[in-house]
Automatic annotation (TrEMBL):
The lineage of its organism: Bacteria, Bacillati, Actinomycetota, Actinomycetes, Kitasatosporales. It comes from the Bacteria. Residues 179-216 are annotated as: Disordered. Keywords: Membrane, Transmembrane, Transmembrane helix. This is TIGR02234 family membrane protein. Residues 195-216 have a biased composition (Basic and acidic residues). InterPro entries: Trp_biosyn_TM_oprn/chp (IPR019051), Trp_synth-assoc_CHP (IPR011746). The chain crosses the membrane at residues 26-50, 70-91, 98-118, 146-166. NCBIfam families: trp_oprn_chp.
Amino acid sequence: MGYVSAVPVPQPRAARAAVPTGGRRSLAAALLLGALGATVVLLSAGQIWAEGTASVGGGSVPVEADGGTVTGVPTALAIVGLAALFAVFAVRRTGRTLVAALLALSGAGAALAALLGASDSAALDAEAARISGDTAAAVAGLTHTVWPYVTAAGALLILLAGLFALRFGKNWPAMGGRYERSGTPRAGRKAPTTDPDRPEDLWKALDRGEDPTQGA
């Protein structure tokens, strides 16, 4: 008559140490949203945001202003957000929460600045005054392109990346951790053994600052 063993079958280490599926998905989503959003903001901020005409010598000349001329806030905050996106993986616990909040605030601030710039005419008025030589000159026929709104959309992606980091960041891995995925400390490196009968081992021990006579 046979006997049934009650010893549990050990599970593969990879299965026990795997990061939760939700954590992997949120991590991939945050990276994609943050990187894509920052790229969109940086590219669209260099496009023409506003156009118009300025009166010069009885005629009119076209004037235009790009996003950087209208406001440099979205570009600066996109760079801050991109740095915060990668800094999230270098910190843990409270530090990760603070960096994730900075990421979200960068996206929100860049979106607000872009929307305010969509109706701004100060940059074109300054350009009209420069061209005409009249400090009181104002631009005529002011129109705005779609690029401020594209910038705002990219900034919202950065905001979403920050919200993902705030909500799911505690499940993400961190760089340079002292512990393995199982939570146990890594085993220290075993010191090399010294053979007192081998002169080369004695010289190596002395070079390491060890006393080869101990334990002999």
